[in-house]
Design goal:
alpha/beta; Rossmann fold; two-stranded parallel sheet; 10 helices; globular; binds NADP nicotinamide-adenine-dinucleotide phosphate
Length: 289
Protein backbone atom coordinates (compact mmCIF):
# COMPACT_ATOMS: atom_id res chain seq x y z
CA UNK A 1 0.00 0.00 0.00
CA UNK A 2 1.10 3.60 -0.53
CA UNK A 3 1.07 5.24 2.92
CA UNK A 4 1.82 8.82 3.97
CA UNK A 5 2.62 9.51 7.63
CA UNK A 6 2.07 13.11 8.75
CA UNK A 7 3.90 14.36 11.84
CA UNK A 8 6.62 11.83 10.96
CA UNK A 9 9.32 13.65 12.93
CA UNK A 10 7.62 12.97 16.27
CA UNK A 11 8.06 10.17 18.80
CA UNK A 12 5.33 7.93 17.37
CA UNK A 13 5.74 9.07 13.77
CA UNK A 14 9.38 7.97 13.62
CA UNK A 15 8.68 4.47 14.99
CA UNK A 16 5.62 4.11 12.76
CA UNK A 17 7.54 4.92 9.57
CA UNK A 18 10.17 2.31 10.55
CA UNK A 19 7.50 -0.28 11.36
CA UNK A 20 5.57 0.23 8.11
CA UNK A 21 8.64 0.41 5.85
CA UNK A 22 9.00 -3.41 5.66
CA UNK A 23 5.46 -3.92 4.43
CA UNK A 24 4.42 -0.79 2.54
CA UNK A 25 5.60 2.05 0.36
CA UNK A 26 5.84 4.68 3.11
CA UNK A 27 6.51 8.39 2.90
CA UNK A 28 7.00 10.14 6.24
CA UNK A 29 6.49 13.91 6.22
CA UNK A 30 7.64 16.09 9.11
CA UNK A 31 6.04 19.38 10.14
CA UNK A 32 8.47 21.39 8.00
CA UNK A 33 7.60 19.22 4.97
CA UNK A 34 3.83 19.07 5.48
CA UNK A 35 2.02 21.42 7.85
CA UNK A 36 -1.33 19.82 8.69
CA UNK A 37 -2.91 23.22 9.25
CA UNK A 38 -2.35 24.11 5.57
CA UNK A 39 -4.95 22.24 3.51
CA UNK A 40 -3.81 23.69 0.18
CA UNK A 41 -0.22 22.67 0.86
CA UNK A 42 -1.27 19.17 1.94
CA UNK A 43 -3.28 18.68 -1.24
CA UNK A 44 -0.47 19.89 -3.49
CA UNK A 45 1.88 17.40 -1.83
CA UNK A 46 -0.38 14.38 -1.43
CA UNK A 47 -2.67 14.42 -4.47
CA UNK A 48 0.03 13.46 -7.00
CA UNK A 49 1.20 10.55 -4.80
CA UNK A 50 -1.97 8.43 -5.28
CA UNK A 51 -1.80 7.64 -1.55
CA UNK A 52 -4.08 4.91 -0.24
CA UNK A 53 -3.74 5.64 3.49
CA UNK A 54 -2.77 8.77 5.42
CA UNK A 55 -1.79 8.34 9.06
CA UNK A 56 -1.83 11.57 11.05
CA UNK A 57 0.62 11.57 13.97
CA UNK A 58 0.97 15.36 13.87
CA UNK A 59 -0.35 17.16 16.94
CA UNK A 60 0.26 19.87 19.52
CA UNK A 61 1.26 17.53 22.36
CA UNK A 62 2.69 19.88 24.99
CA UNK A 63 -0.26 19.67 27.37
CA UNK A 64 0.75 22.65 29.51
CA UNK A 65 1.53 24.84 26.50
CA UNK A 66 -1.94 23.96 25.13
CA UNK A 67 -3.42 25.28 28.38
CA UNK A 68 -1.52 28.55 28.03
CA UNK A 69 -2.00 28.83 24.25
CA UNK A 70 -5.43 27.43 23.38
CA UNK A 71 -5.39 29.04 19.91
CA UNK A 72 -2.32 26.95 19.07
CA UNK A 73 -3.94 23.80 20.50
CA UNK A 74 -7.13 24.17 18.45
CA UNK A 75 -5.28 25.27 15.31
CA UNK A 76 -3.18 22.08 15.25
CA UNK A 77 -5.34 19.50 17.05
CA UNK A 78 -8.77 20.47 15.71
CA UNK A 79 -8.23 22.45 12.49
CA UNK A 80 -5.14 20.41 11.54
CA UNK A 81 -6.97 17.11 12.13
CA UNK A 82 -9.82 18.41 9.97
CA UNK A 83 -7.42 19.42 7.17
CA UNK A 84 -5.67 16.02 7.22
CA UNK A 85 -9.09 14.35 6.97
CA UNK A 86 -10.28 16.68 4.22
CA UNK A 87 -7.07 16.00 2.28
CA UNK A 88 -7.60 12.24 2.64
CA UNK A 89 -11.19 12.55 1.46
CA UNK A 90 -10.18 14.69 -1.52
CA UNK A 91 -7.44 12.19 -2.49
CA UNK A 92 -9.69 9.13 -2.06
CA UNK A 93 -7.47 7.83 0.76
CA UNK A 94 -8.29 6.31 4.14
CA UNK A 95 -7.27 8.34 7.17
CA UNK A 96 -5.98 6.91 10.45
CA UNK A 97 -5.82 9.67 13.04
CA UNK A 98 -4.17 9.37 16.46
CA UNK A 99 -5.96 10.71 19.53
CA UNK A 100 -5.74 10.46 23.30
CA UNK A 101 -7.18 9.20 26.59
CA UNK A 102 -7.29 12.89 27.61
CA UNK A 103 -10.69 13.16 25.89
CA UNK A 104 -12.00 11.54 29.11
CA UNK A 105 -12.38 13.18 32.51
CA UNK A 106 -10.60 10.37 34.35
CA UNK A 107 -13.09 10.08 37.20
CA UNK A 108 -14.73 6.77 36.18
CA UNK A 109 -14.28 3.70 38.38
CA UNK A 110 -13.35 1.44 35.44
CA UNK A 111 -11.37 1.68 32.19
CA UNK A 112 -13.09 3.67 29.42
CA UNK A 113 -14.33 1.89 26.30
CA UNK A 114 -14.71 3.49 22.89
CA UNK A 115 -18.38 4.43 23.36
CA UNK A 116 -18.05 5.99 26.82
CA UNK A 117 -19.00 9.62 27.26
CA UNK A 118 -16.11 12.02 26.83
CA UNK A 119 -15.41 14.97 29.13
CA UNK A 120 -11.96 16.50 28.78
CA UNK A 121 -10.56 18.38 31.77
CA UNK A 122 -7.97 20.45 29.91
CA UNK A 123 -7.49 22.36 26.64
CA UNK A 124 -5.31 19.65 25.08
CA UNK A 125 -8.05 17.02 25.62
CA UNK A 126 -10.80 19.35 24.39
CA UNK A 127 -8.84 20.25 21.25
CA UNK A 128 -8.11 16.58 20.51
CA UNK A 129 -11.79 15.74 20.98
CA UNK A 130 -12.70 18.50 18.54
CA UNK A 131 -10.19 16.92 16.14
CA UNK A 132 -11.83 13.48 16.44
CA UNK A 133 -15.24 14.90 15.58
CA UNK A 134 -13.82 16.88 12.65
CA UNK A 135 -12.09 13.78 11.27
CA UNK A 136 -15.27 11.71 11.22
CA UNK A 137 -17.17 14.56 9.56
CA UNK A 138 -14.58 15.35 6.90
CA UNK A 139 -13.54 11.85 5.78
CA UNK A 140 -15.83 8.94 4.97
CA UNK A 141 -13.07 6.34 5.46
CA UNK A 142 -11.60 7.46 8.80
CA UNK A 143 -10.38 5.67 11.91
CA UNK A 144 -9.47 7.36 15.16
CA UNK A 145 -7.04 5.55 17.45
CA UNK A 146 -6.95 6.77 21.04
CA UNK A 147 -3.84 5.88 22.94
CA UNK A 148 -2.23 6.74 26.27
CA UNK A 149 1.01 7.59 28.08
CA UNK A 150 3.24 7.12 25.03
CA UNK A 151 6.98 6.66 25.22
CA UNK A 152 9.63 5.48 22.82
CA UNK A 153 13.26 5.93 21.89
CA UNK A 154 12.77 9.22 20.03
CA UNK A 155 11.72 12.49 21.59
CA UNK A 156 10.62 13.63 25.04
CA UNK A 157 8.65 11.36 27.33
CA UNK A 158 8.08 10.56 31.00
CA UNK A 159 10.56 7.61 31.00
CA UNK A 160 13.22 9.81 29.38
CA UNK A 161 12.69 12.43 32.09
CA UNK A 162 12.97 9.76 34.80
CA UNK A 163 16.16 8.28 33.32
CA UNK A 164 17.71 11.75 32.97
CA UNK A 165 16.76 12.72 36.54
CA UNK A 166 18.10 9.41 37.88
CA UNK A 167 21.41 9.95 36.08
CA UNK A 168 21.70 13.53 37.36
CA UNK A 169 20.60 13.02 40.95
CA UNK A 170 21.30 9.40 41.97
CA UNK A 171 21.82 10.38 45.63
CA UNK A 172 18.85 12.65 46.27
CA UNK A 173 16.33 10.35 44.57
CA UNK A 174 13.17 11.31 42.70
CA UNK A 175 9.59 12.29 43.49
CA UNK A 176 6.82 10.96 41.24
CA UNK A 177 3.04 11.32 41.41
CA UNK A 178 1.23 8.21 42.58
CA UNK A 179 -2.38 9.34 42.09
CA UNK A 180 -2.48 9.31 38.27
CA UNK A 181 -3.25 5.90 36.80
CA UNK A 182 -3.07 4.75 33.19
CA UNK A 183 -1.45 2.32 30.76
CA UNK A 184 2.08 3.25 29.67
CA UNK A 185 2.24 2.47 25.94
CA UNK A 186 5.44 1.73 24.05
CA UNK A 187 5.37 3.42 20.63
CA UNK A 188 6.77 0.32 18.89
CA UNK A 189 3.86 -1.78 20.17
CA UNK A 190 1.35 0.90 19.16
CA UNK A 191 2.98 1.15 15.70
CA UNK A 192 2.55 -2.61 15.24
CA UNK A 193 -1.17 -2.34 16.01
CA UNK A 194 -1.51 0.65 13.68
CA UNK A 195 0.09 -1.53 10.98
CA UNK A 196 -2.56 -4.18 11.69
CA UNK A 197 -5.30 -1.55 11.46
CA UNK A 198 -4.10 -0.56 7.98
CA UNK A 199 -4.98 -4.07 6.80
CA UNK A 200 -8.24 -4.29 8.77
CA UNK A 201 -11.32 -3.32 6.72
CA UNK A 202 -13.51 -1.72 9.41
CA UNK A 203 -13.01 2.00 9.95
CA UNK A 204 -14.06 3.44 13.30
CA UNK A 205 -12.91 4.30 16.79
CA UNK A 206 -10.25 2.15 18.47
CA UNK A 207 -8.48 2.24 21.81
CA UNK A 208 -4.89 0.95 21.66
CA UNK A 209 -2.60 0.79 24.68
CA UNK A 210 -0.35 -1.73 26.34
CA UNK A 211 -2.32 -4.01 28.67
CA UNK A 212 -2.77 -3.46 32.42
CA UNK A 213 -2.57 -0.21 34.37
CA UNK A 214 -0.33 1.41 36.95
CA UNK A 215 0.43 4.74 38.61
CA UNK A 216 3.16 7.01 37.28
CA UNK A 217 5.10 6.12 40.43
CA UNK A 218 4.87 2.36 39.72
CA UNK A 219 5.88 3.04 36.10
CA UNK A 220 9.00 4.94 37.21
CA UNK A 221 9.94 2.19 39.72
CA UNK A 222 9.59 -0.51 37.08
CA UNK A 223 11.64 1.54 34.61
CA UNK A 224 14.57 2.09 36.98
CA UNK A 225 14.49 -1.58 37.98
CA UNK A 226 14.62 -2.67 34.31
CA UNK A 227 17.37 -0.12 33.62
CA UNK A 228 19.51 -1.58 36.42
CA UNK A 229 19.06 1.30 38.88
CA UNK A 230 16.73 -0.22 41.52
CA UNK A 231 18.70 1.46 44.34
CA UNK A 232 17.55 4.96 43.36
CA UNK A 233 14.73 5.99 45.65
CA UNK A 234 11.45 7.27 44.21
CA UNK A 235 9.13 8.95 46.69
CA UNK A 236 5.41 8.78 45.87
CA UNK A 237 3.74 12.22 45.89
CA UNK A 238 0.28 13.62 45.12
CA UNK A 239 -0.52 15.59 41.94
CA UNK A 240 -1.26 18.56 44.22
CA UNK A 241 2.41 18.46 45.33
CA UNK A 242 3.50 18.93 41.70
CA UNK A 243 1.24 21.70 40.35
CA UNK A 244 1.13 22.09 36.57
CA UNK A 245 -0.81 24.56 34.40
CA UNK A 246 -3.10 21.83 32.97
CA UNK A 247 -5.13 19.45 35.12
CA UNK A 248 -4.58 15.75 34.33
CA UNK A 249 -7.25 13.01 34.42
CA UNK A 250 -6.78 10.84 37.52
CA UNK A 251 -7.50 7.47 35.90
CA UNK A 252 -8.10 7.45 32.15
CA UNK A 253 -7.14 3.85 31.43
CA UNK A 254 -8.47 2.70 28.06
CA UNK A 255 -10.29 -0.57 27.57
CA UNK A 256 -9.51 -1.89 24.09
CA UNK A 257 -13.08 -3.06 23.57
CA UNK A 258 -13.19 -2.63 19.76
CA UNK A 259 -10.00 -4.71 19.47
CA UNK A 260 -11.52 -7.31 21.83
CA UNK A 261 -14.59 -7.52 19.58
CA UNK A 262 -12.38 -7.80 16.49
CA UNK A 263 -10.44 -10.66 18.13
CA UNK A 264 -7.30 -8.54 17.93
CA UNK A 265 -6.60 -7.49 21.52
CA UNK A 266 -3.16 -9.04 21.81
CA UNK A 267 -1.30 -6.01 23.19
CA UNK A 268 1.52 -6.96 25.56
CA UNK A 269 1.54 -5.80 29.19
CA UNK A 270 2.88 -2.36 30.07
CA UNK A 271 5.71 -4.09 31.95
CA UNK A 272 6.72 -5.93 28.75
CA UNK A 273 6.66 -2.54 27.00
CA UNK A 274 9.07 -1.07 29.57
CA UNK A 275 11.41 -4.07 29.21
CA UNK A 276 11.39 -3.78 25.39
CA UNK A 277 12.07 -0.03 25.63
CA UNK A 278 15.05 -0.58 27.95
CA UNK A 279 16.34 -3.32 25.64
CA UNK A 280 16.06 -0.91 22.68
CA UNK A 281 18.01 1.80 24.55
CA UNK A 282 20.70 -0.76 25.48
CA UNK A 283 20.96 -1.98 21.88
CA UNK A 284 21.37 1.65 20.77
CA UNK A 285 24.13 2.18 23.37
CA UNK A 286 22.01 4.71 25.28
CA UNK A 287 21.99 2.66 28.49
CA UNK A 288 24.74 0.47 29.94
CA UNK A 289 24.14 -3.25 29.26
N1 LIG B 1 2.83 11.49 24.03
C1 LIG B 1 1.79 10.95 24.66
O1 LIG B 1 1.87 10.57 25.83
C2 LIG B 1 0.47 10.74 23.93
C3 LIG B 1 -0.58 10.16 24.62
C4 LIG B 1 -1.79 9.95 23.95
C5 LIG B 1 -1.92 10.34 22.63
N2 LIG B 1 -0.89 10.94 21.98
C6 LIG B 1 -1.08 11.33 20.58
O2 LIG B 1 -0.17 10.59 19.79
C7 LIG B 1 0.15 11.32 18.62
C8 LIG B 1 1.67 11.36 18.44
O3 LIG B 1 2.23 12.09 19.52
P1 LIG B 1 3.75 11.95 19.96
O4 LIG B 1 3.75 11.43 21.32
O5 LIG B 1 4.55 11.28 18.90
O6 LIG B 1 4.13 13.50 20.07
P2 LIG B 1 5.29 14.34 19.42
O7 LIG B 1 6.59 13.65 19.58
O8 LIG B 1 5.13 15.72 19.98
O9 LIG B 1 4.93 14.34 17.88
C9 LIG B 1 3.99 15.19 17.32
C10 LIG B 1 4.55 15.66 16.00
O10 LIG B 1 3.60 16.52 15.39
C11 LIG B 1 4.31 17.55 14.76
N3 LIG B 1 3.48 18.71 14.50
C12 LIG B 1 3.13 19.72 15.33
N4 LIG B 1 2.41 20.63 14.66
C13 LIG B 1 2.29 20.19 13.39
C14 LIG B 1 1.71 20.71 12.22
N5 LIG B 1 1.07 21.87 12.23
N6 LIG B 1 1.80 19.99 11.07
C15 LIG B 1 2.46 18.81 11.03
N7 LIG B 1 3.04 18.25 12.11
C16 LIG B 1 2.97 18.95 13.27
C17 LIG B 1 5.45 17.88 15.72
O11 LIG B 1 6.48 18.56 15.03
P3 LIG B 1 7.44 19.57 15.85
O12 LIG B 1 8.04 18.76 16.94
O13 LIG B 1 8.40 20.02 14.80
O14 LIG B 1 6.55 20.66 16.36
C18 LIG B 1 5.86 16.46 16.16
O15 LIG B 1 6.85 15.93 15.28
C19 LIG B 1 -0.50 12.70 18.79
O16 LIG B 1 -1.73 12.70 18.10
C20 LIG B 1 -0.79 12.77 20.28
O17 LIG B 1 -1.87 13.62 20.56
C21 LIG B 1 0.32 11.14 22.59
Amino acid sequence: MRVVVLGAGGMLGRDLVTCLADRHEVLGLTRSEADITDLGGLLRLIEPLRTEVIVNCGAATDVDRCEREPDWAYRVNAWGAWAAAAAAEQCGARLVHVSTDFVFSGDADRPYHEWDTTGPVNVYGASKLAGELAVFRACRRASVVRTQWLYGRHGRSFPRAILNAAAKRPETGLKVVADQVGSPTYTVHLAEKLAWLLEWPADGLYHVSNAGECSRHAWACRLLQAAGMPEISIAPIASSDWPLPARRPARSTLRRYALELAGADDLLSWEAGVDAFVAELRAAGELPG
